[in-house]
Amino acid sequence: MTRTSEPEPKTAPRLAEFLCFAMYSANLTFGKAYKPMLAQLGVTYTQYIAVVALWERDGQTVSELGETLFLESNTLTPLLKKLQAMGLVRRERDAANERHVRLSLTPEGRLLREQAIALSAPLVDACGLSHDGFNATRLAVVKVRDSLVNAVAA
Prior knowledge:
Layout: H1 19-41, H2 45-56, H3 62-69, H4 73-85, E1 89-93, E2 101-105, H5 107-126, H6 131-153
Antiparallel strand pairs: 1-2
Helix pairs in contact: 1-5, 2-5
């Protein structure tokens, strides 16, 4: 008696095949790579990216910075209070609308950003990508992120 062969069931993707896991684990690894460099400066990665965002555009409101960093206010407010206590950020009520708090870097905050850039240069090479590959990968990740933001909002 011959047995008819049934098609094999489709197997579920393995963890290593999940794009979300690749991005998640890459993010964790970036954190580990940045940690010793940022420890020399006395800041965490999240504090560092807040300083970078303010260096690019000083005078943002707390909500604008939250949108830029994809952080909720319950995460951002304690972070900003810590940066203020460290003497890196100033928080001031907006004169035109006192409901808004404007953020600016202190001279120490600007210096920290410059020191971090010098220390982090080897991390670009550690990624193992050419200059063009680095930019193409960054653009691809941004496209995925932005598409997901739009899908979640819809």
